[in-house]
Amino acid sequence: MSVRKTLALASGAVICTGLLGTGCASRTPDGPPAQSASPRPAQSASPRPAPAGPTARPLPGLGPVMRARVPADTRQALVVRGPTSDANQAQVVLYERDPERGWQAVAGPWPAHNGLRGWTSDHSAGDLRTPVGVFGISDAGGRLPDPGTRLPYDQDPDFSATGTGHLGEDLEGSFDYVIAVDYNRVPGTTPLDNTRPLGEEKGGGVWIHVDHDGPTNACVSLEEEHMRTLLRALDPDRRPVVVMGPASELAR
User: Fold this and answer.
1) pLDDT tens sequence for the chain (252 residues)
2) CA 248 from chain center: how many Å?
3) CA distance 82 to 111
4) Distance between CA atoms of residues 246 and 175, nearest Å
5) Which residues lie closer than 8 Å to 195 by C-beta, 6 or more apart?
6) How far apart are CA 133 and CA 227, in angstroms?
7) 39 with 53: CB under 8 angstroms?
8) What are the DSSP calls for 130-159, one per residue?
9) Residue 61's closest CA among 93, 34, 98, 97?
10) What letter would DSSP give residue 200?
11) Residue 160: C-alpha distances to residues 101, 177, 178, 183, 243 (Å)
12) Which helix (DSSP H) or strand (DSSP E) does residue 240 occupy?
């Protein structure tokens, strides 16, 4: 099916090829920021930014396995955390890394939806689960004009959503704003591109898009206001990623 024919109603459920995800929606204070270790005497006359030392704050809720998957040059991370592996609602927080203090929350927490059946570490087309992992977020687009993002933005009428979702909710407007998750896609292309480097069987078209008050096929969805805020905040120079999964997986 062409990626431009994104949604159809079948047996009362949404069928999405390459869009809602292959088969495709408090700030909690953790105490005062940790203090940097005492600086050593300068070894060079040229000043350098202080690296994040051992006392700098790590990404909250991430264990050593997941932290190791975040690229060393990443300074923005959108963390999407579900309460359980089968939950289709999640919480989203945007963090930025300060050279001395470590990771600090700069937006959120926001409520979100994810795949109808929850999460998976081995995503396949049509499983109705959102892939777990750390993925780049490099391209955006939507039916509406660019709200002011620094990401490449493709405004196109083919970002259209029709029919009803898994709970019978109206899907109209779901793709007014989207951000492509770099799972089984070619970064640097429009989110509408349907190239699947891992093969069609591994799904694709996993997006962050406007919430339609119900679970998705594999995407993550946020309220429209939060999508605009996120689009304006993301900075490709900060090498942004999305870190997503149930709390138990993120804590590994």
Assistant:
1) 333 333 333 333 333 433 433 334 333 334 444 343 334 433 333 334 434 445 689 999 999 999 999 999 999 999 999 999 999 999 999 999 999 899 999 999 999 999 999 999 999 999 999 999 999 999 999 999 999 999 999 999 999 999 999 999 999 999 999 999 999 999 999 999 999 999 999 999 999 999 999 999 999 999 999 999 999 999 999 999 999 999 999 999
2) 18
3) 10
4) 25
5) 185, 186, 189
6) 21
7) no
8) EEPEEEE--EEEESSPP-S-SS-EEE-TT-
9) 93
10) G
11) 42, 10, 11, 21, 27
12) none
Q: What is the DSSP string of 166-199?
A: TTS-B-TTTTSSEEE--SSS-TTS-TT----TT-
Six-digit token pair at 20? 């809602």
User: Hey, what are 79's tokens?
Assistant: 């963390």
